[in-house]
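Q: Given only this backbone (225 positions), what sequence would you predict?
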């Protein structure tokens, strides 16, 4: 898409290059609008992600502390008991889009949450307070965990789309447009030079015709005398 044509340039070539310049300029403006919208969206999503990340890290610290307490005072058996007969959680992946930016959303499959360890009924008589605190902390962290995961995926997708959009804008601005404008100037210069040559040739031809006309006129005048 450099706008270079084979053969001698013509007015049609010049018009085609100018149309390409207008088209590329319009495309660049659209990409700039998309970039600005992505920047605004990314700023907002990053703010939400920072909030979710802060809360997520606080809750995971609490879970880690309670997990350590249960492991120290009740042993590995209590922790294995929580996961006994509980298969891995199945996750549903949903494709989403924002301003042409595609990203994945992650959610637990239908009916999967009801069999998680912290949602199973445990007899208070056979569970310790630390184990109950661990189960409660895990249940309270469930919502923020999914929010953190999905915001992280969304922010990453927007950042990648913003990088691609910025690269396209820079390519149009620094490669295609200068090339097309240079080609337009080249064709204009060649056409101008051709017009000057044609005018020069026409002028010389006119002079020759005038001299020939005067010679013929002189001959006719001599004969008549």
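A: Predicted residues:
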């Amino acid at each position: 898409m450099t706008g270079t044509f084979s053969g001698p340039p013509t007015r049609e070539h010049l018009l085609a290059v100018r149309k390409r310049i207008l088209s590329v300029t319009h495309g660049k403006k659209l990409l700039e609008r998309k970039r600005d919208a992505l920047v605004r969206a990314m700023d907002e999503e990053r703010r939400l992600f920072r909030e979710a990340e802060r809360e997520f890290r606080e809750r995971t610290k609490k879970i880690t502390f309670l997990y350590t307490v249960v492991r120290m005072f009740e042993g590995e058996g209590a922790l294995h008991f929580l996961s006994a007969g509980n298969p891995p959680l199945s996750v549903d992946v949903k494709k989403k889009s924002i301003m042409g930016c595609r990203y994945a959303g992650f959610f637990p499959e239908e009916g999967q949450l009801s069999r998680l360890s912290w949602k199973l009924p445990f007899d208070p008589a056979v569970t310790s307070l630390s184990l109950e605190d661990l189960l409660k902390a895990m249940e309270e962290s469930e919502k923020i965990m999914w929010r953190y995961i999905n915001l992280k995926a969304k922010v990453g997708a927007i950042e990648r789309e913003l990088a691609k959009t910025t690269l396209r804008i820079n390519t149009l601005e620094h490669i295609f447009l200068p090339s097309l404008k240079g080609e337009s100037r080249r064709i204009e210069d060649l056409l101008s030079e051709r017009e000057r040559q044609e005018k020069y040739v026409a002028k010389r031809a006119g002079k020759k015709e005038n001299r020939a006309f005067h010679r013929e006129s002189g001959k006719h005048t001599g004969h008549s005398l």
